[in-house]
Design goal:
Structural class: alpha+beta
Strand content: 15-25%
Number of helices: 22
Helix content: 25-40%
Mean pLDDT: 93
Amino acid sequence: MTRKKLMLIIVCTVIMGLGLGICVSPSFAQAKYSEAPELLELVKQGKLPPVEERLPENPVVVEPLQEVGQYGGTWRRCWMGLSDSSGPNKVAGHVRLVRFNADGSELQPDLAERWEMSPDGTTFTFYLRKGVKWSDGHPFTADDVVFWYEDITLNKDLNPIVPEWLSTDGEAPTLEKVDDYTFRLKFAKPYPIFVHRQALYGGFYAPRHYLEKVHIDYVPEEEIQAMVEADGFHSWDQFFTAKEDWLQNPELPVVFAWKMVSNTTTRMVAERNPYFYKVDTAGNQLPYIDKMVHELTQDKEIINMRALSGELDMQNRHIAVTDYPLFMENRAKGDYRVMTWIDANASCPVLYINQNVQDDQLKKLFREKDFRVALSLAIDREELNELVYYGLGKPRQAAVVSTSPNFNPEWEKAYAEFNPDMANKLLDGLGLTEYDAEGYRLGLDGKPLALTIEFASGVFGPWDDVLELVTTRYWANIGIKAVLKPEDRSLYNVRCNANEVEIGVWDMRRGNILLINPDRLLGTAYGDSPWAPLWGQWYTSQGKAGEEPPQEVKRIFEIWEEVKATADEGARDELFREMTDIHKDNIWMIGAVGETPQLAIVKNNFRNVPDRIIWDDALQTPANAYPEQFFFKQ
């Protein structure tokens, strides 16, 4: 099947001078599309329809970064298992109705080729790309959106609470299927930033033709129960959740560039999706790379050593910035290059001073601004940067990053100078003037004062090294005793959610595009950043759970509600400035060193990878580098 050759009209967005240009074509047609040789062979054998029939009427067109790629090869990576699912998800699984461009400054069409918002900001109409197909060849239509919304997202067994990003005042929108390729969402109140937020959170689809066969509303209960028991699950919701996860279920149809075909105890293998809906500017169906293999390891050091020896083709996740000199020294031997991407991480790590801590004596201290300021002033961030990060980072407070349109330079510097003398004066002023035999301050009750810092050891960055310096050198120097409690990430998450942590430790990502998710600032980043877990619960439950916060924290919540209902960008920026000023004045979160480079180790024959790009969770990096256009240079 051929199509009439038309002029290619391409709208390009060049990303902040970072070298990545992506083109989205509203009108694209070729005399003939091209495809991978292995797929062409399957077409000849009658096992696949021609590529023109596998692509949508109007495919997404991606302009290769450096050159039109070549088909072939297996991309070797590492991951740490299902708890590390963000790794493969960010490489292959970030497909949305509408997505951000590489730096998050603009929205781009994806599965939806266009969308409309009503003048009052309550109603959104999406027009799906006609002819997109699942990896098994079944048509992708609005029915897949309706199923995802009504049968999964609003199913109380699967999702007891409507996701915050998909609701206004806790109320879910109504969804109307207009036709096979059009649907409409209507919210109870204005929500003009909804499309921005779905760019991160909302896949907004599920393969109805497959999943309804394992859904309790579509299959007799006795048959469902037999399936649940046969697969070794205790309940239907556990069974279904595993079935809808592409990393656990090789049979699940996907719309990603690669489809997982096997996942064993040692490796996960994904192969090219023959129905992927994107092409390059020459009409070649993407992706270029045949396979992607994730080798399983539980040790980040092994990942770094394998990258160092040239065994990984392109790896950025879990690559340690502290190994930068070693990586640079061994480039020729490992036949790779070292990319230094811009990490939109405000601080790595951040000390989250729990305002809802259970111990009454600690709560009294933690809620004293002077106590938090003293802890911050005692940290020598310049020394930390040199000793731990080789001077590659920026000594700063846990503030919104400088790449953000909502950057507050005053917050970045607030109480971030090294001033142990002032820290001591502040602690003395609080009445902490008595010491034990070891030189540590006693609490206000006259008993030994010891803070416990809990953190997930070996997760991201050199946290152990930073925290060791903070506790044994900086805080000990002002008479504050702190004990480190490293633990498994899952245990740490559970304890954070249960409000059992005194001082928690995490990074401060998602600080580049506050419009998507300011959860670190709201105190609602459950499981990792516990500066106000009970206040956050009060907000998300609309006062039904948690603990009522003070007015300044309530104002943070009010600001976010106003932002969500505000269409004017300038007005939103003013609101965010007020929110960041509140944090600047209170310092509930103490930063150390941030905006460190995110290293990407890339084999020299692995091409179309940007030298510089923003690394940001909100952009699902490396998804914002468009991995489908990566290729092996032969």
